[in-house]
């Protein structure tokens, strides 16, 4: 069988953003591929007839796709290139042709119909010109010219003022607007309001949000706008909840919210009545998917209405399942053993984009308990190719730790093999059994690859995810104990040729591991954290971590933060370490890797740093294709150099 090649992902076809027409007769979804000529990605819109299951592309390839389908039809939202604004196009659902369009002087992210001819739009504005939509064209031109003059400057008045993948965000606000039949625009919230969640019922809009002053707020309030009276009233004005979702159920307002007590617990479900939050469901569900893979792309979070019910996908132990919030309960609606990437409600059935087994994302119909695959965009990619099946490994502890092993291509138990431990990010995320390209590539090259979900991972409730008062203790013990278990089960692994890698929290843990054990012969620390004090003062994580650790503030937590910092233990490190960082990573900024790299160099430990220009925290998942190839080459070359003899090494450093 053929091995997995390093650049095979450039042939993947990623499906995402699944939506269904109001009459439930037509499905729409996005297909994304790499565009190697331009070193980026391209996307196009598809449709599928739910009766015949016939499908066809509706648009040409484009760098970006933002569309919506509702009772009024199919629409695309295209940002203007040279000015704030969006072109809203009405598309023919039969062939994708433009039937009509209008312009709005707003950078619109979402838009929903409101009454007969009105729209409600969520759009981003900035506090330096919150009423841009009300200016005359001459005034708008003056504003744009002034912005050009200031292109070389950033004025900072807030914290955090940067955000990963979004760049400089100082003054940015997500606000609600009413777009009238004559296309005039009316702001529904103040210029300083950040709207989180919103929903429409008839002529009413409910939304959560908060005014921002100087620093990020972790709590929000709830309002309701009446479209007939055009009046707004506050439904909740407390300062003790963070709202993930607000929506209507009949006359009731339902809120998915977390108590602002610093616990970091999963949200619960409430009914908001008479200004009071009444507990409806004492849940411990995460309400979000957090399964890690480098083989999906696009809008994946499913949170869709089915009458008064809410369907959502969320991490569920070692997979992502679809759940239904109905009445006073949350129940599991569908599970595939892998990942429910997106979902839509049909007539008597569900449609979903799934990752099952080692298959890439495809479109499925779920009816009467039966799952039917409707698309096969990626099936031929793995023909006559070695794809390792994850072998489950359960570490029996008071709370079991689940993990897996990928066996190397042409595995012979009588041989000795190198192995790579891969640690997920988060830490409140999960690994599962879905296809993971980098791991499969290493298995094809002759490595054992093993990975697990230690304490701190998602999908098993708030208590399991709680790492207070410090990272690097029970999670480190779990990972090391899991390593011991894998070595016991697989004597073919050469204990002197172990490598460790991971990104984000996985990078933090890689840094932590090399300062606490000498058992690994090589390490690759990606988008890591080395010093919690510097990390919290410059990254978009900001003071939220302090709160989640139950600490007062950064001025009174220096000892606790330093004790959790891998840099404190770097003098004990001897493991040759590669550092991978991106210059525009605002989640784990470059100085975090630089500090660790410099300290190792000063101690005489072999180390190397590779910086990727223009990339952010998502390099391994959605970075420029050629950068992703180079990243994988660098990591594999480092491992080959230290874990394989000269005959086995195929990567050049």
**Spatial order of strands in the largest sheet:** 31-32-34-33-35-36-37-38
What percent strand?
Answer: 35-45%
* Overall mean confidence score, pLDDT: 95
Strand segment tally: 38
Describe this structure in words.
With 653 residues, the chain is of the alpha+beta class. The protein is 16% helix and 38% strand. The protein is built from 11 helices and 38 strands. The protein has an 8-stranded mixed sheet with strand order 31-32-34-33-35-36-37-38, sandwiched between helices. A 4-stranded antiparallel sheet has the order 1-2-3-4, with no helix packed on it. The radius of gyration is 25 Å and the shape is globular. The two termini are 27 Å apart. Mean pLDDT is 95; it is low at 646-653.
What are the main properties of this structure?
single chain; 653 residues; eight-stranded mixed sheet; globular; 11 helices; alpha+beta; 38 strands; four-stranded antiparallel sheet; disordered C terminus; 38% strand
Care to give the gist of this entry?
The protein has 653 residues and is of the alpha+beta class.
SSE blueprint:
Layout: E1 14-20, E2 26-35, E3 40-49, E4 55-57, E5 67-70, E6 73-79, E7 86-91, E8 98-104, E9 107-114, E10 118-126, H1 137-149, E11 162-163, E12 167-168, E13 172-179, E14 185-187, E15 193-201, E16 204-211, E17 221-226, E18 231-236, E19 241-249, E20 252-259, E21 268-273, E22 276-281, E23 303-306, E24 309-316, E25 319-326, E26 329-334, E27 339-345, E28 350-355, E29 362-367, E30 370-373, E31 391-395, E32 401-406, E33 417-423, H2 437-444, E34 448-453, H3 462-465, H4 474-489, E35 493-503, H5 505-514, E36 522-526, H6 532-538, H7 544-548, H8 558-563, E37 577-582, H9 590-602, E38 607-612, H10 619-622, H11 625-643
């Amino acid at each position: 069988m053929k091995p997995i090649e390093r650049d095979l992902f450039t042939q993947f076809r990623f499906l995402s953003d699944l939506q269904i027409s109001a009459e439930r007769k037509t499905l729409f979804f996005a297909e994304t591929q790499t565009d190697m000529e331009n070193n980026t990605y391209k996307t196009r819109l598809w449709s599928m007839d739910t009766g015949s299951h016939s499908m066809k592309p509706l648009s040409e390839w484009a760098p970006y796709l933002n569309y919506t389908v509702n009772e009024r039809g199919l629409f695309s939202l295209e940002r203007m290139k040279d000015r704030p604004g969006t072109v809203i196009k009405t598309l023919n659902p039969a062939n994708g042709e433009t039937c009509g369009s209008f312009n709005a002087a707003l950078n619109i992210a979402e838009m929903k119909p409101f009454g007969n001819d009105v729209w409600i739009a969520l759009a981003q504005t900035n506090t330096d010109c919150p009423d841009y939509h009300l200016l005359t064209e001459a005034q708008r031109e003056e504003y744009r010219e002034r912005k050009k003059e200031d292109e070389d400057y950033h004025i900072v008045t807030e914290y955090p003022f940067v955000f990963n993948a979004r760049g400089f965000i100082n003054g940015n606000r997500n606000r609600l607007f009413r777009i009238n039949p004559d296309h005039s625009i009316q702001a529904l919230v103040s210029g300083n309001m950040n709207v989180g969640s919103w929903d429409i019922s008839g002529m009413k809009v409910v939304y959560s949000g908060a005014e921002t002053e100087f620093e990020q707020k972790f709590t929000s309030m709830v309002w309701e706008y009446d479209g007939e009276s055009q009046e707004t009233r506050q439904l909740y004005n407390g300062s003790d909840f963070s709202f993930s979702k607000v929506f209507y159920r009949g006359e009731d307002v339902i809120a998915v919210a977390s108590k602002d007590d610093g616990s970091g617990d999963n949200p619960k479900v409430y009914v908001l009545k008479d200004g009071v939050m009444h507990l409806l469901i004492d849940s411990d569900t995460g309400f979000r998917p957090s399964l890690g893979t480098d083989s999906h792309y696009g809008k994946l979070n499913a949170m869709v209405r089915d009458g008064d019910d809410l369907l959502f996908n969320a991490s569920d132990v070692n997979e992502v399942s679809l759940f239904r919030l109905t009445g006073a309960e949350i129940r599991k609606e569908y599970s595939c053993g892998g990942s429910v990437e997106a979902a839509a409600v049909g007539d008597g059935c569900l449609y979903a984009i799934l990752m099952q087994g080692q298959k890439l994302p495809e479109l499925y119909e779920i009816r009467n308990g039966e799952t039917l695959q409707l698309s096969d965009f990626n099936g031929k990619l793995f023909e006559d190719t070695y794809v390792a099946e994850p072998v489950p490994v359960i570490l029996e502890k008071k709370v079991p730790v689940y993990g897996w092993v990928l066996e190397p291509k042409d595995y012979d138990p009588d041989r000795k093999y190198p192995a790579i431990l891969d640690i997920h990010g988060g830490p409140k995320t999960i690994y599962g059994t879905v296809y993971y390209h980098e791991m499969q590539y290493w298995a094809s090259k002759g490595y054992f690859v093993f990975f697990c979900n230690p304490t701190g991972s998602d999908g098993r409730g708030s208590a399991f995810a709680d790492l207070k008062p410090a990272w690097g203790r029970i999670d480190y013990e779990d990972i090391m104990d899991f390593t011991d278990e894998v070595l016991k089960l697989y004597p073919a692994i050469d204990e002197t040729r172990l490598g460790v890698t991971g990104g984000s929290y996985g990078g933090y843990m890689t840094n932590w591991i090399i300062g606490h054990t000498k058992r690994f012969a090589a390490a690759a620390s990606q988008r890591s954290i080395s010093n919690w004090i510097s990390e919290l003062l410059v990254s978009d994580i900001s003071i939220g971590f302090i709160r989640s650790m139950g600490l007062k503030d950064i001025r009174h937590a220096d000892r606790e933060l330093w004790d959790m910092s891998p840099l404190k233990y770097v003098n004990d490190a001897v493991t040759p370490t590669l550092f991978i960082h991106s210059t525009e990573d605002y989640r784990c900024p470059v100085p975090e890797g630089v500090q660790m790299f410099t300290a190792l160099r000063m101690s005489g430990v072999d180390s190397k740093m590779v910086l990727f220009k223009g990339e952010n925290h998502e390099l391994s998942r959605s970075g420029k294709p050629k950068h992703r190839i180079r990243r994988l080459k660098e990591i594999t070359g480092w491992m080959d150099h230290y874990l394989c003899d000269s005959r086995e090494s195929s990567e050049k450093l």
